[in-house]
# Entry
Amino acid sequence: MTTVESSGLPADVYSAKCPTRQVLDHIAGKWTVLVIDSLMQQGTLRYTDLARRIGGVSQKMLTQTLRSLEADGFLTRTVHPTIPPRVEYELTPLGRSLAEPIAALRQWTEEHINEIERARAAARA
# Structure
């Protein structure tokens, strides 16, 4: 079992006090899933490319998601000294380690969408 270095306690997402709960909440968010999956599929991307790729994300949510992913060490932000500045995002090794489970979640969702929609329709009827 992993021990949380900051507290010396065992890592336990079921404990409200454990920081793993915050990480799980963060990586399970739809914008996080879509940003990481996009960067895994496309490689290094600029902000505008990510915004175009992820339909429906607001500028505010994309910016917050990118900042949070950078703070947690999942991606790097590189600013190139051009006019205007060119900013690129790329997954770190930690971020790439999330790629397989996130891709599996995306694929599962795409494969089972019809079953889910039928169940929703039946629940409304």
